[in-house]
Amino acid sequence: MLASAYLYQYFDTLKDETLAASLASAQKAVLLDADSPYGHAHTGLALMFLGKLNEAEAHFDRAILLNPNSVWCAGCRTAWLNRVGRTQDALAALDMMARHDPFLPAWHWETRGVALFVERRYEEFIAAMRRKSLMEYYDHAYFAVAYAYLGRDEEARAEVAEVLRKKPDFSIRAYAKLEVYKNPADRDHLLEGMRKAGLPE
To answer: Rounded to an integer, what distance in angstroms lies between the CA atom of residue 26 and that of residue 4?
Structure first.
């Protein structure tokens, strides 16, 4: 839980030391209990955002082996699938989760949205993300990009305004570190879309 708290704090602050604290906490959890699926899943998440995608994979696989029925552990691995370009696998896994859990958490729609966004399926991305109950500043940033690529400039500007309302110090340069992708083209596509939408550099 401490690793999770640090990770969510990192999403807001983007401070390297916060991400390092998340990884350290997750690794301590695994040290205390090598069979903790949640310790392995959190270790995988921290490694993923550090750009260590290959190392992260082993922890996600271990988490699912230890608890194959955990929708949350499967969801963590799905986020990794998006980052390594396996979006079709991610969408298939999300479909399976939906069959197992009728009360889908907010992150389900976010992870589905990212998969659809990476595939440039902007209308479907918007439809999926609209089902998320609570929007973060980065969700609005993704919306802004999707609308910009669709040529819906007024809606893109409205989403940019919402990003800056929720995070006045937002900048593409600072935010870019959060978007780790195996294929640089996937990251570049997102960042270029942010510029197209009018988010501050």
So the answer is: 8
